[in-house]
Amino acid sequence: MEGSICSCPNSQTWTSAPFAHAKSGHVRQSECSNLKFELHHQKRLISLHVECCSSHTRFQSLQKNKMQWKSAFVASSPSAFATGSLLSSKSVAATATEDGVATKHIEHPLSPIEQASIEGISQLPTDANGESSLSITVVGASGDLAKKKIFPALFALFYEGCLPKHFTIFGYARSKMTDEELRKMISGTLTCRIDQRENCEDKIDNFLKKCFYHAGQYNSEADFKQLDAKLKTHEGGRVANRLFYLSIPPNIFIDVARCASSSASSEQGWTRVIVEKPFGRDSASSAELTKGLKQFLAEEQIYRIDHYLGKELVENLSVLRFSNLVFEPLWSRQYIRNVQFLFSEDFGTEGRGGYFDGYGIIRDIMQNHLLQMLAIFAMEPPVSLDAEDIRNEKVKVLRSMRTLNLEDVVIGQYKSHVRGGVRYPGYTDDKTVPPNSITPTFAAAALFIDNARWDGVPFLMKAGKALNNRRTEIRVQFRHVPGNLYKRSFGTDLDQATNELVIRVQPDEAIYLKINNKIPGLGMRLDRSNLNLLYADRYSREIPDAYERLLLDAIEGERRLFIRSDELDAAWAIFTPLLQELETRRVSPELYPYGSRGPVGAHYLAAKYNVRWGDLNVESQV
Questions:
Q1: How many Å separate Cα 426 from the centre of its chain?
Q2: Range of lowest pLDDT (49-58, 302-311, 473-482)
Q3: Which of helix, strand or coil describes residue 564?
Q4: What top-tier enzyme class does this entry carry (predicted)?
């Protein structure tokens, strides 16, 4: 970029790449207020040089993000210049180029969209006093997600000291409610860490004092202007950064985005919007939703959240693979026979059938949670840990996947079942579900990635409600040992000799590797054992909830665990033809008893590719 935000005749030159990609920084400040800031951007050395005419220039050091240094650039009259530095004088000049070529001339304050397009913030924009404020608005504050997940996650961040000094939380919904009623509603869901119980009640009281409520319509700009006035009162004239969490149905996303953008966005700091799934029902509706949001928000302002990406074991996937030499050489078709992504719940819809019936298990679980885990598992090593580098590799995987067809899918629906004298209701027994519904509550699918690393390896997904247990796992089954000297010891069932890596996402987070070994004694008897890392035994600290990590990342401007629009398009392209065929042909799901392992057809699907589901004999000791 190139431009000037003052008329100082002794201004110097600033050279930089887009700040969202800055990796590290070094700073030097001389007595003559001459600042030099160097960034290592991938393989290029980029420098920033700013000279101020005033003696009031001062510098604030960069704050370190989780994995990388970042910087921010915000320009507003008369001077709000921040790249890890803070220049309080009005007489500052800055000229910027990228690789020696001017990319933009700045003569006026940047618009919110321009600010968002170049922000990569690990430090909140601040005012001349070095202070900023953070305002978080939970839209749909009266809903279950807000009460059970979002407010508790925000409190956990407050308890851990992860929120800035000046922060405010507003609940926004159509329901009439006072501030005290909101606080009473959410207070019952707030808990302190198991290992940090001291001053818990005081912490809760202090947090609740920061929570307020504003009632309004989701499509009313006037109501959002009233919200804006309340936010400004609490922000106290500081540079305001605003985060909106849309915990609402997708059919009103665009109305809220329009009202928030036009009437309640920040005038100086950043404005970001977290969007909850589902992101449409198919490719067309998803594209329409994205187009509608982008009328009022830049892509860089939109944070599409999939809470499974914030789970500890999912985030550990890339660490396990790329930081352990023992695994990365094995991560290919040469050594891996199949990969399974398993999701099961031991309960039904339980009154939520009305919502679920509009989407089904494929849209609700497979197309987002399981597919996102698959993309992280199968991606090529990224250039760096930068958000865009990681998301680029995920998109490549998704675009390499075959479109799903009906022959590679089995669907099911749970029916009522009596067990132990207790009758468990079927899916259509739910009063919120139409009695003739054919919406699947179970699905199994075989997917394939047509690239050099994974050609021919089946990636099997299985997801269902009202099954025999609650579990989410990734199971990696390795190939048989060629010419195994001990094959006679295993009999005809060579699957018993297969090494298997299991990553249990929830519950009881664990990573374990199945190996073969000799049973002590004079004979030659072999046994399967587990080398396991059980998180509860190894780590004493409580594992943070996924929403805590994702909310903190959104506040810091870290986009690595959020879904980009082209990533969303590629994901829907895999499933949309299948969903359309299921609905057009009105394919009836196979019924399975409540509390069972699911429909028999899933086993035939696995056998079709010479695979046995890894969860059939789940180890009780692990």
A1: 32
A2: 49-58
A3: coil
A4: oxidoreductase
